[in-house]
Design a protein that fits this description.
The structure is a homohexamer of 257-residue chains.
Chain A (H helix, E strand, L loop, with lengths): L2 E7 L7 H11 L4 E7 L11 H6 L1 H13 L4 E4 L7 H7 L4 E3 L1 H12 L3 E5 L5 H11 L5 E6 L11 H17 L5 E4 L8 H8 L3 E2 L3 H17 L14 H7 L12
Parallel strand pairs in A: 1-2, 1-3, 3-4, 5-6, 5-7, 7-8
């Protein structure tokens, strides 16, 4: 039985869709069918600012509704701010939803005592720190280390990126006593393996971890009915209201990588 | 010198604009010029669900940009979820921004040791609890008490609403040992005075407290330059990017109550 | 490629081995080969007391060593106290290790905001509360509810057990505002489905959740090399020392269910 | 309508009364009437030690009683330890009471994510850390930085003081990732503006922030009746008892700056 | 070698000196010489209000100085608010200082997982809760239970007091799952034994526990030099300053019970 | 009346028994009769790994049962991991049980605001940090400093050990602002005095502090009946079960130092 998973890049550019799709498909379980999607331009091509997260909110919610209707088993919102995670879970009734920070931090906390998150800019810290706290892992954070790179810098010159990540990962392990490393941006894909080999601790990739967490969540949802609880924070809005207020959805699957 | 404050009801209905404007103007300082605004329909007329908060995100950000450009000294985002507060502070460079939960909880924590928040529905709790934690007041919450009313119920039958609020406020003080009460929805306006008189503890109204906090913040911003810090979480996006990605703003002040 | 998982009942009785094996095998992934094992009598047949956990410590460690040597990909220590989890992870270098409380709480925290854990006796609470805190979920616990049943009571009269669990689960959802339920003993197996159906929130079974979490962890370990970090708390003892001090291991797989 | 605010320097020296009065009056609202007062010598001229706080306790309480009776709308206890804040709020029934650490930390937490407090001596840290925790801002403190100066050093050589504050403020922003700076002693007055100009983040002055917070609190007290709650920690002692036990009060307003 | 311990009732009445002295002497170690002292009238005869704690501050500090000079090995400040504990430790350089809440909570946390504190009035809670937090035991408090009695009520009618304490202690164990009980006022002396016998959990008396903790602290101070650290929060004020500012001390030991 | 205290080195070597016994006896109260015991070889001679703690679990529990039966008043489990403390307290009904980390941290938190713990290896940190959190002192830890020495290194070359401890203690006080130092391994005995003399803050020895805490606990147990509560986490297992499952105990006191 196939598990249909949607990786949604909540940005108005599809430049990362194909490489992420390719990488995730290599890593997916045999029974997983993976689609990758991004938002329609024009709009923010990165979400380094919370105001961009809000700006894409409407289209993001529409896409979540579409994904739920389209029968996906799991949805991954592909931004390390976990943009709209709570909101998406309200909409999802059958589908499970996860996101990179949640998936990476749960996993890192299982693999070691302390975690260092390597982020692009200092600006990202407060929102990510808040998320870590909310998920329960605030006390496990050894450090946030800043790479001084923006989202679109990571894949521009892979060697430079890898070198910086390597340097900060080493410092995190040695100076901050981190036992695990989390790469705190989905666009830091492609680097974990080499860094892990050299540093010798788990280096969690922010695309692969949520893929596997999504497979796991979809598995327990399908088998045991363990889905997002509907009696509290993830309660769904009344169907009629939602239909009226959450804009139209996605007419076709054109554009799915 | 006039302080220009904008109360923004982040919902696509203006039914609450006039009564809120009237009530706030009665309470405003002499030098305050207050405008009240809501979003353009169609769209959610309440934000009980986080997915509605995301849905209005684009128009909300556009309005925040407009308010900053229009020269407001302070902006209040009129929803007790404090929808988009972080995002709005990124956009604001001169203007200060606040919101009901922040303003009410800071004040209540100054007036008493423990706080009970009277909310409409159980569904609201997780998001409000998270906010209380982030603001630093998690340990001060004596209880969240649920009135079992939706946003649009509060003003439908004022006597019923007041009676329920009174009953829960009393129970909060007697059973939960709350020392202060916060009315956890902006549409619970009009009730604080009578409840306070009967219960004998401060009952903080979620429209008046942020108005006064906004006046205070605008005052210290104007006099001492104490505005939202721009070196971290409230850093503004590059101007060109923001201009391109945050949709158009508000063409006219038509519709300002 | 087969994933070999060992469920270890850390008690000196095999009465639960066959039913747990049967239930887990029904739930396991196709590629999972599952073994179930318990300890050699004489010794404690339940671990309700921490002194029994210590008493089985030697045999438990020996079995962990044996499992690592025998090539298991994942080990589950089948007690909701997560007995010896840290210790087992020191020994494991290739194998991943998990346990019920860890697996259930991570999952429940992903599915809802708040959790109620249904335990057998009040006596269990302090140790379980400590574990919940250490894992990061202390702030998410809506309640521990006590069933007033010992480990060996749960399967004695399934109808009574189910009725009590149902009653407390309902109360947890209604009175404590729990959004998810966790069955806080592995021997509460067999009940989750009916209770979940009646109460309408996720009811997490303490055998199935760790099985699936183990499959997930083994998957990411095998694919990406994400294993327990060896630079800190899970560092392995020197091989020679461990060989000398951790008693002999398990001569045969006889007794594996 | 005039708001009468009393700034009380809880030390037995009036050397700071005039400069603080002058500075505060420049910053006060038009409708504010500000008095500045200190205690009668002999006695401690600074409160760097908690034993001095206790020593001035009797005279401090007497002055609070006098201020309440004299009809002040707000009282500010002018020491960054917030000496006797809880006690003063018991006595105050109509008057509101605040103090520098409370006012500065609430404001800083509103303006940025993290706070660095620049204090005079390491000795001050435990008491200030405790206060920050109690107020809810412990998790927001990026650092306490020590200037190695006593209370009476700050105004002795303003250039040296400013240079040290500037150096530590810069380090706080760059090394500790502070987003806001709080000057952790009332006698650090006169420096915030220049430091803020050079460092580029809000630098909160410990005299101006509580003045404005007091005006805000007096405003909401007067308009809405939001005063310190009397059902719990701020309950007033029986009038007769208080009259007998809290020594005489202040016979004249002579000495009010 | 004799250990000289001073129990200081920080209230301006000696009515409790003799009974407390008698009870403590029965419980003291053979080598302990115990004195009991109270403050000079006129002044508060109880400290239920924080403003009374401040009011007695001057005389309290003077007595601490006198005790240090008089060669006491340990000082106990006999109020469950632990009035002036930090301040007294600044003054003490050779002498150790403790107080009831500190001693009782440390002990209770060693004897059981959770603690219920039985206090006189709801008014006391915020200050006691703050102390419990500061000492590290906030997470261990099962409940504060309110007896609705003032300090001077406890010994007025011993049978009534005991009956109320018994009732609340039982409820604490059964309803709040407290594993230990702390009597949260020194004037609740004389009741612990009977209550403990009937309830079956440790019931910690707020006079006996600090006596024994003081003996223990004096023992390790004398043998190993483990006294209050002087490099931070307990640093002593300069001798000359302290001599000038902390009023005169106690001329004679007249009045020592 | 004699207080009988057993110091149990939970390791299968008696090399430390005699020196610890000698040092403790010099420090014990007159009425204390002290025995020192270790486990039977073969087995771990140190417990740097949690898997060794589990390995000695059976013999440790047997010895605890023997100690309780043999009439000891207090038992100290001589490892800074506080191995099996909860378990031992279940078994003890008359005897009190303590351990080094508990005793040292309670004492250090009484003597100063912040604590630095000097441990042997980084590997030890997670377990010790967890214990500090559980005891309530997580927020008081200024730092864990790592000496890069194993248990058996400390007494090999006393001068080197002392020099390293001295260096890290100094750095802890100066760089980490520690107000007290705790030596985080029982085998760091013999060093505290010199280090304390040179560094000038309390340096708590991990053998002497628990001895004195045990004397104190035995004293209050004997006089007031304040023993480990039996209604919750320290409830004893049914006698018959425990007799059957906790292996045989210690036939003779041969081997007691």
């Amino acid at each position: 039985m196939t598990t249909r998973i949607l990786w949604l890049n909540p940005v108005a550019t599809d430049v990362y869709d194909a490489p992420i799709a390719e990488s995730l498909r290599r890593a997916a379980a045999e029974h997983t069918h993976l689609d990758v999607l991004s938002l329609e331009p024009p709009g923010p091509t990165h979400l380094e600012y919370s105001c961009y997260e809000m700006t894409v909110g409407g289209q993001l919610m529409a896409t979540v509704r579409w994904a739920e209707d389209a029968g996906y088993d799991a949805l991954i919102i592909g931004c390390f701010y976990d943009t709209g995670l709570r909101a998406a879970r309200e909409i999802a009734t059958r589908m499970v939803v996860t996101a990179p920070a949640e998936a990476c931090l749960h996993l890192a906390a299982t693999l070691g005592d302390t975690i260092s998150v390597l982020v692009g800019r200092r600006k990202w810290l407060p929102e990510m720190r808040d998320n870590a706290e909310r998920y329960g892992f605030g006390g496990r954070i050894a450090s946030f280390r800043v790479l001084d790179m923006g989202v679109h810098d990571f894949q521009r010159d892979a060697d430079t990126s890898k070198a910086r990540i390597l340097r900060e990962a080493r410092a995190a392990v040695e100076e901050d006593r981190a036992e695990t490393i989390v790469l705190g941006c989905t666009i830091e894909y492609g680097f974990y393996e080499e860094v892990q080999r050299q540093v010798g601790v788990p280096v969690i990739d922010a695309t692969l971890a949520p893929l596997k967490y999504a497979e796991y969540l979809a598995d327990v949802a399908g088998r045991f009915g363990w889905r997002h609880s509907k009696v509290g924070g993830y309660q769904s809005p009344p169907a009629e209201e939602a239909a009226a207020w959450i804009p139209g959805g996605r007419p076709t699957t054109a554009g799915v990588a």
